[in-house]
Amino acid sequence: MDEHNDPDLIKFGDSCRSDIVIRLKNRIGRQELFHSHSFILKTKSTYFADTLLDPSSNACIEIECSEVNYDHHLKLLKCLYLPAGSLLDSFDSVRSALGVLQVAAALHCESVVHSCVQYLEAVPWEESEEDEILVVVSQLGPIAMPVLARIQPVDLVGTKSVFISAIRFATSIDGPSPPFGMSLKPQPKNRLSTCLGMTKTCHWLQLIMRYN
Known about the structure:
Pathway: Protein modification; protein ubiquitination
Domain BTB: 18-81
Number of strands: 3
Radius of gyration: 22 Å
Helix content: 40-55%
Largest sheet: 3 strands, mixed
Protein name: BTB/POZ domain-containing protein
Organism: Sesamum latifolium
CATH superfamily of the largest domain: Potassium Channel Kv1.1, Chain A
Shape: globular
Order of helices and strands: EEHHEHHHHHHH
CATH architecture of the largest domain: 2-Layer Sandwich
InterPro entries: At3g05675-like, BTB/POZ_dom, SKP1/BTB/POZ_sf
Number of helices: 9
Strand order of the largest sheet: 2-1-3
């Protein structure tokens, strides 16, 4: 293999072997240039692969991001240069993994998405992080099911009944509400319970209809 295409020799920011530049910029004018390598970008991201196939593309790819996720974009670029076995160890918090996950999904970086999901499946969460986790991973499809399983309500039938009853009440639909079945009990930490509100229940009903 040509040493210029050897992933073991190519490092993030290596200007000597760089053949393309990534420009990260946000709306308030912050921007940085990062020496990158088309071989790595095309291998790890279908977004970059498609972009580099465009005859009008040049030696600089510009990516616009917000101030909030700027650092997550930078982290994602660094992740593209890591061996698969080192990706999990590169995350140091749930918030960081969630941020990188959203960027990786947008740029179609499959290996990074998979590693983020593995990390979120394995590490403990704070109760305050659970809502954000649900919102992010519920958009990923089947790959996110291991994470969603951790916050799945124990009494799914009861949760659906609560939701349907609330809809009937709000829309004044005639007819009896469905039975509640088993009584709803408080759930342990990292479990989705009906008391978390209608938003979570809506997410779950969408997932039920999608995958069942």
